[in-house]
Amino acid sequence: MPHTDDTLLLHLNEAIATLRDKDALFATVTTQLRLIFPFDLIGISILDAGLQNKRLFFRSYAGADPAPDAPSPQALAFTPVAGSPVELLLADPRLHRVEIQEYLHQYPDFEPFVRMHRQGLRYLTSVPLRTGGRLIGFLMLAARRRPELPAADERLLEKISSLVAVAVANTLTFEDMARRERERSLQLNITTALLHHKEREPLFRAIAEELGRVVSFGYFGLRVQRATAGRAFEAFAEFSRPSPADPLVAINPLIPHDADPTLRDPDGISQQLHELLKNPGLFAGPDFKALAVRFPRLRYVYDTYHTRAMLVAPVWQRPDSAAVLTLAAADAHAFGPDEQATVQSLLPQIALALENLFACEEIETLRAQIDQERSYLIDEINTTARLGRGLSAADGPFVGSGPALRETQRLIGQVAPTDATVLISGETGTGKELVARAIHTASPRHGRALVKLNCAALPAQLIESELFGHEKGAFTGAVERRIGKFELANGGTIFLDEVGELPLDLQAKLLRVLQEKEFERLGGTKVLRSDARVIAATNRVLATEVAAGRFRADLYYRLNVFPIALAPLRERREDIEPLARHFVQLLGKRLGKPPLALRPADLAALQAYPWPGNIRELEHTLERALILSTGPWVELGQSSTSSWLAPLLPGALPAPSSSAAAALSNPPPIKTLRDQERDHILATLAQTGGRVSGPRGAAQLLAINPKTLEARMKKLGIRRAVVLE
User: Fold this and answer.
1) Domain 197-361: which CATH number of 3.40.630.30, 1.10.3720.10, 3.40.190.10, 3.30.450.40
2) Which residues of 488-526 are buried (b: 16+ CB within 10 A; e: fewer)?
3) Separation between Cα atoms, residue 40 and residue 121, nearest integer Å
4) pLDDT one-digit tens code per residue, 645-697
């Protein structure tokens, strides 16, 4: 026996000196101990420095019986000594041989002993582990049969426990060193990713890939709660990995991946788990199943994605924001205390990555906004210089003093100090943009840009991007993020010219901005706010457009808060002379002409003309005349080379007849769309001799399908016989 004892101690000492892997080391210990001591299970429980908490460090089953499931992450975590049989061992730390049933009488709910008793293990031998005189844990041998240990074997077991204690201490040290080295390497790689990536998806993909080298997970999710989103945690960066060998796949938040319609509630996972996401947590096996029973969202991922473990690590908690990192896996044993400690050690770097990303995104947004504001400012300066050159400071932006112009100026003075939405209506060329600029200049918002958008100048597909902006990749050709006019006009004024040209689908989105001050960029999920004053202009009669179904009634009423109707130039004849003199002076300087004068007869001709193009037509007519003038007078069609100005020759422009005046003052009643369509089809059929289809038929002229035309004729009550009569 002494020779055998010495051989056993020698083998154990060699194993301790040469083996660094915990499993290999204690497999050797288990094999050697079974040569002398019969047991069916060996376990090592270690204690913290204060002897207040314990955790399972090693467990091995011996014999031919199949081993049960591996210990859960909770079993490997530190738990309080109080309330467990370990407190009895601490009260008298020496070799004990007891029946497990005795401990179960006093601690009936101690799960490890309940499980051992259920597996037929009846007897337990515990030996204290000490290094340097300090108690670090207990070696426990469990058996189905009562062990017979003479005094010599007990002394040998105590000697072996000293070697095992050294092995445990060494292994803990090596594990701690390996963990620190792994964390340092991981932190270094993440720092490198921080230096190389400045965009959200590449940055957090790199972080997730580095973390995946040391922690196995199937889902990586970073959620952020901001003051603008209330209590909700928004998905900021999410990746999935179907299996450990598969690459990470970015989860697009715009694509719904919840197949269960009952889960599409307004709260969502972030609000269901609001309190849960605020605290560090490790939920695996039964614990995660309990959460799945409690929360419908987790029940969905439990059933659909077979998730069995979740690790929650809050990045920060602030009064105005919060951020949390969540990992999930299908393996119930994927996360343990070591994985949780590794993730916790990375949180400062993840917080730094978030801060840097927020700063970069804000800087990029501000840079784009400044660039666009600069473009608009240059445009404003050029426009103002073009319109205001030649006027004194007292003249203001308007020329003339007629009653219609004075009424417009009065309305501008009343509405400018407010934030009310203004709808400017009038014929083309009456100066709607000039009125909008005057309202902005006289308003408290004059320090910010007046952002303009002509709704008729862009294709319908691009107007939404121009108004609300788009994210990179939102559509083909969107190679970078772009902020929209509403975002650019935040704090200032946005002028929507020709608003009656907006498509119906965009009218609904514009209505939301007017009512809620909220919108999203194309391809984005972040809700943005814009405190922009809206001034709209149109040359259409929007009330008629509403009746015809081409313009939303709710948007019309929302825009028509303060209407300003601009009179056409034919109703402001007293303003034609000052306008003409102003344009002659302004355009003469621009064209490099000496000062020219207008003949009284020419002024009379200008005042008699009805000006269907209004002020714009007047300006362009005078510009053509100045270009052709060679003497001291503005020549309005006096030379044979300018016969196209003949309508403006003195005496050649008669005053409007009484019938024309009556037509202007009493316009014919407006037909309904049905009557207008019926008349148009009848005129076309009359032109084609009643032929509907064929090469020279009405369908070809109207560019519609013959069957469609016949259906419309039937609906409108048009018969071919009527046409042919």
Assistant:
1) 3.30.450.40
2) bbbebbbbbbbbbbbeeebbebbbebbeeeebbbbbbee
3) 8
4) 444 544 444 444 444 444 444 555 666 777 788 888 888 887 787 788 887 78
